[in-house]
Amino acid sequence: MAHTLAPYLEVIRHTLNAALCLRNYPSQVVERQNRPEVEFKDTAAVVPRPLTIARDENERCLIEPSVNSVRVSIKVRQSDDIEKMVIRKFARFFTQRAEHFVILRRKPVEGFDISFLITNTHLEEMVKERIVDFIIEFMEDVDKEVKDLKIALNTRLRASASAYMAQFSQRG
Q: What does the angle CA 127 – CA 128 – CA 132 come to, to the nearest 5 degrees?
């Protein structure tokens, strides 16, 4: 893990540990239903203000807690067009397979690349520390994969440009 990434992820880890103190809370609007309050915002009293943790203006994490659910939205750093394309493809790949990732939302929150929704039923079925570890590890891996893909793409582009230019130097 990069030294500049470590404090950012550690703050997110501590914030998620605090926010994931969820309990069962039936809907105050619809009888016999238990809906994620962070998604529907039926009762304003049980949805505190969202928290934004930012590494810089291009990379941030939005944590929206409520009494029975937490929505975690991630904006990955996109410093150039190549990174924007890679992140868009990555996000599309994961959202198409959201049913395999139980806590992944199909559609991210506006302005973010990937969103997770964790409800109290998820915490009854899974261990809280493992969910937090998964999100942190996911963020580390996406950051690493984007850098690796960008390097691999630049290497392939350099090789193909060299091969193309070699055609012209052999003629003369």
A: 120
